[in-house]
Amino acid sequence: MKFKFPSIAVIIDSAAISLSRFPFVMISSFIGAFCHLYIVEHNGDDVWMGKLSMVCLLGIGWFTALALFAESKKIKAWKKLLINLFGALLLGFYFYFLPELKLFRVVDYSRYGLFFIAIHMLVAFAPYIGKGFGNGFWQFNLALFSRVCSAALYAGVLYIGLVLAIAAVNQLFDLNVNEKRYFELFIIMGWIFNVWFFLSGLPDDYQELEDNTHYPESVKVFTQYVLLPLVTIYLVILYAYLIKIIYQWELPKGWVAYLVIGFSVAGILALLFVWPIREKEGNTWIKSYAKWFYLAIYPLIILLGVAIYQRVRQYGITENRYFIIALALWLFSVATYFLFSRSKNIKLIPVSLCLLALFCSFGPWGAFAISENSQLARLKKILIKNAVLVNNKITKNHKELSLKDRREVTETLRYLNTNHGLKSIQSWFGKTDFSFDEIRKYDYRLGEVMTLMNIEMASDYYPVAASTSQKNFVLRADYYSTNALSVKGFDYMFEGLDFSRASERQLKYELDNDTLEIDCDLADRLTIIKNNTEIYSVNTVALVNRLIKEKKITLTNDYSFSLPKEKMTLIDTQQKATVKFIFSTISGVEENGKRKVSSFNCTVFVKGN
Q1: Range 455-489 burial, b when 16+ CB lie within 10 A, else e
Q2: Virtual torsion, Cα 53, 55, 61, 64, nearest 10 deg
Q3: CA-CA to 149 of 20 to 30 Å: which in 222, 264, 503, 507?
Q4: At residue 574, what are phi and psi to the nearest 5 degrees?
Q5: What keywords sit in the KW lines (predicted)?
């Protein structure tokens, strides 16, 4: 087989045709690339560009689906324009209601992922809405798959080649190319070249696809000798595990759900690959394999159901568990359809996945509403049991909660805050000195919520204090803050100083004609010496206590909570020097009202008085 590189004229013609067929796709591509380049050039410091690039990424698939649908229906140009403008309006609404990226929660990312899946499933069947599912549908999706792989390969090879060329020129001619340019080139290749190359090879003659009986032998070989044997191996493993848990009469492990879903999806994909040749002579095994495969799924779905039921019974429904349940029901429906249906319409698979993703993404029946309500009910049950929540109001005069219940409350509040926010429980509290909306931005407020409940935080991920009178605490600054550090008014800055109670540290610096030493013993004092003269000394525990008191910090033992940088900043002025501390982390132990500092990491600014 001869391989020919396309000429420049062919490339230009192909690009022009793609722009003519998919103008809104390319507009999304260019805007998305611009936004991404802007973010890189300005170090991510922009509220709108990140949101816009995410919406543009959806727009590439969305406008591709609309264009393919209009093209297959031979809709007039002005109607195509109206359809695309309506599609742009929907994306605009989505953009408007998206929060800032720094305020994104798991729910926002998950819903975006569901829309992404739904749109890409829509592309798979958009030209065949209202049509049959014959050979043309399979050939079209094979072309889609082929173009995705080819575009990724061409873009990847071209990117590597250009990077090597830039690196060579940079080294040979001492151009001092900024490292950002390599990533910016990657963005251009991904957003523009990759999309353009993909679109340029999409088929537009749907009758020709229907008449095309060519079946790539490589697809059959890959499926028959690679994919199906792997599916069979995993089937044997899963059935061996099923026999094991029945014999030992034990509950299945939770992760088996992911294995069952992965196996089932791989098996269905393999059968789709060989669908056109199932009736041909010598391939009768395909029908038999498909029948036994779908029959074999049923016991595994039961296994999956038992595994996920145990998790739901113990910990309630979360988004992940909801998605597993939804996929289990989808697998059951697909298996039943292909076993008993006469038509066996393979278009059902992308259509049903598209509808399922949309179904899960919104509404009181969706993954997010059901998960939030389930976890709220679980939290409410624990609080009512311990008389913390009485008549839908929080009371502080209650018995001390068990360690198990404290962990349950901590983890549930963390889940709600991370995924949904805590506005749903604001009505339980009286007037507070902070808004529950702030918790979305500053998760250290979650510790204050638990203080309002008079419940000490506990976590499965961090050790509990050795006795009931002892409390571990951790303070951590927000690592994602992009604020620069100003050195105005100070003579020296020492960044990333790390001190531990396990050992006394003595750090020595030669700066111009001065010698500075920073000595720190966390059991005693931190001292700064300049040219053999002590200019600053402070008790480390007193320093931390002052920070906690002045900044009104609620202590917590959980590293997942962070404080804004200003709350971890303290200025201390003495006779010979003014010192500014910006702490990254502080950890210690509190017992009977007294604190011990175990370690801290900080940046120190020093000014001589």
Answers
A1: bbbbbeeeebbeeeeebbbbbbbbeeeeeeeeeee
A2: -100
A3: 264
A4: -120, -175
A5: Membrane, Transmembrane, Transmembrane helix
Tokens of 377: 């009910």
Classify 283 as helix, strand or coil: coil
Residues 539-548: b if buried by 16+ CB within 10 A, e if exposed: ebbebbeebb
Q: Any alpha helices (H) in 509-600, and if so which ranges?
A: 540-550
Q: Between vectors from CA 161 to CA 157 and to CA 165, what angle results, nearest 5°?
A: 170
Please tell me the distance from the alpha carbon of residue 284 to that of residue 291, in angstroms, as a whole number. 12
Amino acid, single-letter form, for residue 533: T
How far apart CA 182 and CA 212 sit, in angstroms, is 42
5-56 pLDDT, tens per residue? Answer: 555 666 677 778 888 999 999 999 999 999 999 998 887 656 789 999 999 9
CB atoms within 10 A of CB 187: 18
| Residue 29 neighbours by CB distance under 10 Å | 24
In the chain, the largest separation of any two C-alpha atoms, in whole Å, equals 96
Helix (H) or strand (E) holding 364: none
HEC secondary structure over 14-63: HHHHHHHHCHHHHHHHHHHHHHHHHHHHCCCCCCHHHHHHHHHHHHHHHH
Contact 589, 465 (CB under 8 A): yes
What is the rounded CA–CA span in Å between residue 129 and residue 76? Answer: 17
SS3 for 473?
Answer: strand
Residue that the structure tokens 């796709």 belong to: 25
State the Cα torsion 389-394-399-401 to the nearest 10°. 70
Q: Residue 571 forms beta bridges with which residues?
A: 580
Mean pLDDT of 264-282: 89
CA distance 220 to 277: 9
Residue written as tokens 């819903």? 111
Which DSSP state fits 73? T
User: What is the Rg, in whole angstroms, of the alpha carbon atoms belonging to the chain?
Assistant: 31
Question: Roughly what angle, to the nearest 10 degrees, separates helices 106-125 and 48-72?
Answer: 20
Q: In what order do the strands lie in the sheet with 505-511?
A: 505-511, 514-520, 525-530, 533-539
Q: How far apart are CA 516 and CA 356, in angstroms?
A: 65
**Rounded mean pLDDT of 564-588?**
90
Distance CA 520, CA 527 (A): 6
Tens digit of pLDDT for each residue in 289-339? 999 999 999 999 999 999 899 889 989 999 999 999 999 999 999 999 999
Enter the pTM of the model: 0.81
Look up residue 238 and give its two tokens.
Answer: 């899963």
The full 3-state SS of 365-415, as one line of letters, equals CCHHHHHHHHHHHHHHHHHHHCCCEECCEECCCCCCCCHHHHHHHHHHHHH
The number of beta carbons lying within 10 Å of the beta carbon of residue 166 is: 15
Q: Are the C-beta atoms of 373 and 415 separated by less than 8 Å? A: no
Q: Which helix (H) or strand (E) holds 559?
A: none
